[in-house]
């Protein structure tokens, strides 16, 4: 018989775990090679060694993750829930090891076993959970929340195929499935105990209870199950590990064995396939009705799962709904999750039976909304017909929200019917559409822009009516980037150099980089800085040659524009300069120009024909330029295929010149500009987005600013902008445009790029490329001249690194925590 004392001892021993810190790294690697992969060193592949290394690092993460979870359960702090359709987290192994402070030990352990960490890391596939800046920003924010010990959870979708894997075939973008889960994902944990039912279609039935109150029941709906997959997000130099919860669609319909046995194989699985397509692909092509429906399904799917999950977590510890805003802060990352405003009302009113007015007050206290665009056409809207068919109850809720909102506006501004039309959540002027940005603004206590200029334009132009209605609701929080991935991880040589000179404080406080300022005047330091940049360029050139077979000269100026392909980002303006420089070289007018390599990278949305044409033109120009013996190594053009986070980790440190050339007043912020400056690239750009603040930080002389300002753009358009004036007034520009239109770069199909010519001239040049052309060319000439003075170029590059500490996402998250979420570090 076991004594009570023995029972207690037995229970204790059952919960005793040998911690990862107690196991030497080499032993852990060998253990996981056997127990996780079923291999020995004799027959293990590089992928097996990646698995062993990832599991070893994951063990360390898991201990902190469980501890963080248990501490939060005990303390029940206010939590932040970050809702985003994208989380571009990139590879996890090296980043997690770095944040935990064991990257050196893991590297040494692999070396002792005859392997190289850098080679092993290459076996990890980038998580295909995003496309561009929006998703990368969300990932940076998760990193900073964990680093700053702020209890935070990201909610998104576990895309099975992501957006697409881009390949370039005959110069054209080809979209291939990005099967990033082919080999499984060591970093995710399926949570079948966390599932929620998501409803679509059906109808709403009104029922009156015994007290005469009206209740609304959503009936005859179709449903899908959302299942949670958790990904740990470790903070830097802290015990905190936060959570990214991704939702995967699981069918409620069973596999139809009878249909299968009858030979109707497609019918046997069609219900499951239709349902589970919700979490298959990021941004399905919305040029078709079915594509638009799927996009709206995706947005509601993950938002409903998140809201249900958040309420469930709250009710585990609380029964008083008054406490909800004290325990929950929800941030809407752009308009994609804006339906959360209506979904929270649906849950509180229909499911938990709170009074409407009470529920609404709670919701407004909980939500914050981040806007990421200045272009009205980019603000998401949905047809009332589609919305009402897919989400009938939510359309009713939005109608009620809109009615009460317009009543308030009418009382505040009586008789201004035009104002009511402009701010209504339902747009009655363009075929009756639900304006998601308006819903987010009305349903949130704070709306923030992401750069000083952007936020000011939100208040004065895009949402000026709402700024009058809600004075003080609009604020600015300038974006930031995590220095862990975008400096420590991607540029270890530079970090080592800087640490040897100014210490390691900047690892956790990027503002400490200012101590580099006097070193910009030190010739020895400048030489060491240049050597590191050159090594990074060699590494990048080797990767590009492997991918494209184009051999680059690392001593040339690496001029880099990597971002989503879009007309407003003006990759085409960059290309106009490339052709101009090509013409000058061929005519003997550029003998004193610095050798230049122009690198493009980025994806075009599958349905964005003009963006795809720009990619094709870049590649056609590259073929002509790169194979012209008269040009040689003086000019090279390459398109880096399938731009993603792991590619960016090579491109940013290897860049000399950062192209940030959007039309003034169109880019909300940008974060690539911050990453390049932090890695020692000089910026050429317009006064747009965060470029304005970068200029303020680094100094006018350490950045190349060109082009029209935002007010000048507006004035030129108002005055009747005529692009033909620039075509006829600038012989170099005319020559370039005629070459594009005349088939110089497409002799097999001379009219291939007539549409680009027409867009710039016959259709008004909406983004004013031709108006900014001369100024851009002059700025590029200044770039070329400065690059030939390597001492001065290095001095200015060092000053860029020293002065961009403001753009850490830690600073950004600190401002969100203080000014929007009202949360504190758990360590305070």
From TrEMBL:
Q: What InterPro entries does this protein map onto?
A: Glycg_phsphrylas, Glyco_trans_35, Pyridoxal_P_attach_site
Q: What is this protein called?
A: Alpha-1,4 glucan phosphorylase
Needs which cofactor? Answer: pyridoxal 5'-phosphate
SUPFAM superfamilies assigned to the protein according to its UniProt record, in alphabetical order: UDP-Glycosyltransferase/glycogen phosphorylase (SSF53756)
The species is: Methyloradius palustris
Family in the record: Belongs to the glycogen phosphorylase family.
Q: Could you tell me which PROSITE patterns the record lists for this protein?
A: PHOSPHORYLASE
Q: Which GO terms describe its cellular component?
A: cytoplasm
Indicate where the modification N6-(pyridoxal phosphate)lysine is found in the sequence. Answer: 675
Q: Gene of origin?
A: glgP
GO BP field:
glycogen catabolic process
Q: Which domain of life does this protein belong to?
A: Bacteria
Sample GO molecular function, one term = pyridoxal phosphate binding
